[in-house]
Amino acid sequence: MTRLDTENRLSDPDGFYEALIAMHHELSEAQSQQVNARLILLLSNQIGDCAVLYEAMQLARDAVATPASPPASTASTESK
After folding, report:
1. Distance between CA atoms of 42 and 23, rounded to whole angstroms?
2. pLDDT tens for residues 10-45?
3. CB atoms closer than 10 angstroms to residue 32
4. From CA 73, how far away is CA 78, in angstroms rounded?
5. What pTM was computed for the model?
6. CA–CA separation, 62 vs 64, rounded Å?
């Protein structure tokens, strides 16, 4: 059973995305990772439901960890 609400509920998704990117402006890679971790912890505390958070974690990981398909041209070059 899905508990995570994945419908867009942001009143200004583009503005939020711009602010999210701007949050990293002039930060080092390490600082960007730290600010991301801190933001995740703050929002996780706001949500407060571990089942929802675990589901979100799995969806986020699945979206990144899914292996990409090899390019179609690779198969045709190997067979020649």
Report:
1. 15
2. 999 999 999 999 999 999 999 999 999 999 999 999
3. 13
4. 9
5. 0.73
6. 5
